[in-house]
Write a structure and sequence with these properties.
The protein is an all-alpha fold. It has a domain of 76 residues: Tetratricopeptide repeat domain (Serine Threonine Protein Phosphatase 5, Tetratricopeptide repeat), CATH 1.25.40. The protein contains 21 helices and no strands. Helix 5 packs antiparallel against helix 6, helix 5 runs parallel beside helix 7 and helix 9 runs antiparallel to helix 10.
């Protein structure tokens, strides 16, 4: 005989069944509240708390929007591969999430994963679905002010051509790079787009084309430091506005490029850049040292000594300058002065075999064989190879 359920059991079961949708709705509501809180924290640049709050939201409910915000937080905190993983989660949940493709493509480019970047950018450019994006929800104003910026499929595609052009440039497909960068300019003649194409022209040694793009960029955005910096590289006679010359970013850019030109033995460019930099900041000891190294390479030894001595006046702790001045005097055949500066270096640091070796050569020229032999022995003790002829000269 079949046993009937009691009314109490049926009533309890009904209560449980009724509670399930309510609990799920409550969990989803709590997840959404946490997501909104995390988004506000992200806008306020509290990235650690934003991430922990968002991950609590994701434990309750996984949504494309939450994973996308997670990717933005990872990106802001310089965790590119984790951001890519979050964006992949977005795309797995919503296959046409264009913002995720765009951001992931950008991150792939920055991480040097170029073929994957191309796939994501190609997806956006070939997309023919509804022209909507969600980036409006996450745009953070650089001035930290709440501003709404609409991002449409068309404006996104304009940016994609520019980014895809940079990817093609990175993998050496220069014709495709030029095509994309030029099309990006046709869609949006912004200063940055002109700078990007100018950098490609510079890589292709098309300096006049680069110059035209950079002049356009500076006219569109007179305060764009990167445009003026690159314009100076292709036209050393260009007149830089005083506001740019005094910009905190400009001098390090020039100094870095001057040193790179020096290392590449592009001495004319290096001299122009060092001259410009020292006009703006004549009391930078490192800048003076490098300008001195250039003068030494050009055999302008008096000028080199002048730069070195000024650097030493500014930063007396840079005792390597004594060695550099000694080398300059040695090249001038002023051996007494060279020896004096080598000795000043060795009084502060006796570990450098090169200095001992150069000092030995100097003392041989001064016919001070006893001190020359002492210096050669110290040089050999510190790993310097010494020719038998020098040893013979020393022992005579």
């Amino acid at each position: 005989m079949k046993q009937k359920s009691s009314p109490a059991v049926l009533w309890t079961l009904c209560l449980l069944l009724a509670a399930l949708p309510f609990d799920r709705t409550t969990a989803q509501s709590k997840a959404y509240d946490l997501y909104i809180e995390a988004r506000e924290l992200f806008h306020n640049h509290d990235h650690d708390l934003a991430l922990s709050t968002l991950q609590e939201s994701l434990r309750r409910r996984k949504t494309p929007e939450a994973f996308y915000l997670e990717a933005l937080i990872y990106d802001e905190t310089k965790r590119g591969m984790q951001a890519i993983s979050s964006l992949t989660n977005v795309i797995e949940m919503q296959a046409d999430h264009l913002d995720a493709y765009f951001k992931r493509g950008e991150l792939y480019y920055r991480e040097g994963i170029y073929m994957q970047a191309l796939k994501d950018f190609d997806f956006i450019l070939e997309y023919d679905g509804p022209a909507e994006t969600n980036a409006i929800y996450f745009k953070v104003d650089p001035n930290q002010q709440e501003q709404v910026q609409v991002v449409t499929l068309v404006s996104m595609q304009q940016q994609v051509y520019g980014l895809r052009g940079l990817v093609y440039q990175a993998i050496g497909e220069y014709d495709k790079a030029l095509s994309d960068l030029s099309y990006a300019i046709a869609l949006d003649s912004s200063a940055q787009n002109h700078v990007n194409r100018a950098l490609l022209f510079m890589e292709l040694n098309r300096k006049e084309d680069a110059r035209r793009d950079l002049l356009t960029a500076t006219s569109l955005s007179p305060d764009l430091v990167i445009a003026w910096y690159n314009l100076l590289l292709v036209d050393q006679n260009v007149e830089i506005p005083e506001s740019i010359m005094n910009d905190i970013e400009f001098i390090p850019m020039i100094s870095y490029q001057a040193v790179e030109a020096l290392q590449k033995e592009e001495y004319e460019l290096a001299q122009s850049l060092f001259t410009r930099a020292l006009m703006i900041n004549p009391y930078d000891a490192l800048l003076l040292l490098n300008a001195g190294r250039l003068s030494y390479k050009l055999e302008n030894y008096d000028e080199a000594i002048g730069f070195y001595k000024k650097a030493l006046e500014i930063e007396s702790s840079r005792f390597e300058v004594y060695y550099l001045i000694g080398n300059s005097f040695f090249q001038k055949k002023d051996y007494a002065q060279a020896a004096a500066y080598y000795e000043q270096f060795l009084a502060r640091d006796r570990s450098d075999g090169n200095v001992w070796y150069n000092a030995a050569l100097t003392y041989l020229e001064l016919e001070d064989n006893l001190r020359a032999c002492e210096c050669l022995k110290n040089a050999m003790d510190r790993g310097m190879a010494v020719s038998p002829r020098l040893l013979r000269d020393c022992n005579q």
